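To fix ideas, we now present one chain and its tokenised fold:
***
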Amino acid sequence: MAVRVQEEPFNAGDELNTFSKTSTDVGAVVSFTGLVRDVAGGLQTMEIEHYPAMTERAIIEIVEDAKARWSLKDVLVIHRYGRLEAGDTIMMVATSSKHRADAFAAADFLMDYLKSRAPFWKKETTGNGASWVDGKDEDEDALNRW
């Protein structure tokens, strides 16, 4: 298991290749890579803030929850903070398991958690000014299914 909260960019392809090579006794590796999405008004920057120890601890706890719910061999979560621009890689989740159903379900669960509950605060700056990003009802609904 690896959880990394970092400011530096990362190469999702390289991360996935490294993750996939860590075990030869799995039948499935599932990954999701999130990108900073442009918004109406033209995103100039997105700034992500967090409390390091709190954020990492919260993500580790949810990874442990996922490992208890599904038969996983390994999990990788990378999430960036700092100043990002549209198109930048913001995060990645990868799961491995003997069977694809567990790997898919765990990755989906982790994504729903990261979107709704991970302690990150995002501020978008557009041509119309800067504003903090509020949670969305559909993200809460997605998390509630677990």
About this structure: Residues 52-69 form the longest helix (18 residues). The first strand starts at residue 2 and ends at 6. The beta strands are 2-6, 28-35, 43-50, 74-80, 82-84, 89-97, 120-126, 129-132. The CA atoms of residues 3 and 60 lie 7 Å apart.
